[in-house]
Amino acid sequence: MGASQEHIVMLPFMAHGHLIPFLALARQILQITNFTITIATTPLNTAYLRSAVASDPTLSSAASESRRLRLAALPFNSSDHDLPPNTENPESLTPDQVITLFHSAAALESPSHRLVADIVAEEGRPPICIISDVFHGWATRVAEKIETVNVSFTTCGAFGTAAYMSMWQNLPHKSTDSDEFPVQGFPDSCRFHRTMLNQFVRVADGTDPWSRFFKTQLALSLGSFAWLCNTTEEIEVLGLEVLRKYTGIPVWSIGPLLPPAMLNSNSSTTLTQHGGRGSGISTQKCIEWLDSKPNCSVIYISFGSQNTIGSSQMMELAKGLEQSGKPFIWVIRPPVGFDPKGEFKSEWLPKGFEGRISDSKQGLLVRKWAPQLEILRHKSTAAFVSHCGWNSALEGLSQGVPIIGWPLVSEQAYNAKMMVEEMGVCVELARGLGSVVTAEEVRKVVELVTEEGGEMKRKAVEIGERMKAAVREEEGRKGSSVKAMEDFVCAILSAAGERRRAAGVVHG
């Protein structure tokens, strides 16, 4: 589909949870077109992407053999923005530094424009489109200047994206004293609770640094030609309806953007972890441990690449897991207030905890990174204690694994709300760092999901099947996400053709 000389420039946001879906999107586009794709980001994030490309056979061949996938490093010096040296993603940053990083992303507008202008000079015409992160709303200006279109890509789900946007743009909680309130764009029956708001939205007044960033960039993204959303029509009916109405422009649901082996029930391929990160445990050791456990018995606990919980919460979670008697794999990091990349200390867990769970083979504590994809698709995994980040949610649900939700930041509480109320595949254990968590509550929730959660499991399996069907193409039948991707490609080709014909008339 499409001519080989067409070119797409991608501008992902500077965070691992955004970079990897952009790579997955590039893979999808490369598989159905002859386009060239250039992904441009900061130097350290480009190096991170290069390692991820090297570990993905489809992408590495596109990068090395045909040069259809290119990585471009945009000049960026974190020290110029009052950030620590060599800081190009939010990991290890304090909240104040995180918003400084967000604002610093605007400095990429000029080098992005120069990059695209160089492509125009080399190829004789503009790229067919720019695909930018919704947090890079300034890309709409870059697209205008070089006479192409910008397509905004939200790496989150539709429900979470719509709630996040409406919350930042309208601050609905500011006009009520009630803990529950409606949110513009959502049905009146769909109420949100004040505890779902992260600390920065809660105190926002529209002029604070967080409000200034999100209101500006999201408004610019609404001026895009269209949006792409990392979700599936069949699993987010309400979310997509709200998002389409709210944006007023086409929204193509082209997800789930996951490794192909995660979406193929018959695949036995060993999965490389997103981004080529090193694990704190070998995949083989992890699988051997899982193999020793009964089907649907293991609890997997991970709060994503950037999050952790408070020290008292960590202590109670450990006690509750041990009391449940259920086997578990826990990706542990130092609690809030300590260096996230520092050494994990035994004092943050109950006395003798690690020795007991190791001797009894009840638990496996993993420092740094675990082979999450392999854990989630293993038959022994019963439930996923998750921060409800969208990438993790998709990974778990694609394998039919119910979620025990503990949303912490960003749009995670909105994702949890949807998975609880709309999908029926999640039960919330806690919400945020302010939640008081008890060992007893942890034990109860773990037992509920593993022993009485048959309906949740059934629904999670059903959601996983719908996700797999959406990206399937067989016997002449195309899944909804396959069709959406093709419709998107046709739309940008058509728009480019119209621009070029108009330019021919103007110059003719």
UniProtKB/TrEMBL annotation:
One Pfam family here: UDPGT
GO molecular function terms attached to this record: UDP-glucosyltransferase activity
Sequence similarity: Belongs to the UDP-glycosyltransferase family.
Top-rank EC class of the record's enzyme: transferase
Keyword Signal: no
The name this protein goes by in its record: Glycosyltransferase
Keywords on record: Flavonoid biosynthesis, Glycosyltransferase, Transferase
InterPro entries in the cross-refs: Glyco_transf_N, UDP_glucos_trans, UDP_glycos_trans_CS
The keyword NADP is annotated on this UniProt entry: no
All residue ranges annotated as the Glycosyltransferase N-terminal domain in the record: 8-259
One GO-annotated biological process of the protein: flavonoid biosynthetic process
Coiled-coil residue spans: none
PROSITE patterns on file: UDPGT
UniProt-listed Enzyme Commission number(s): 2.4.1.-
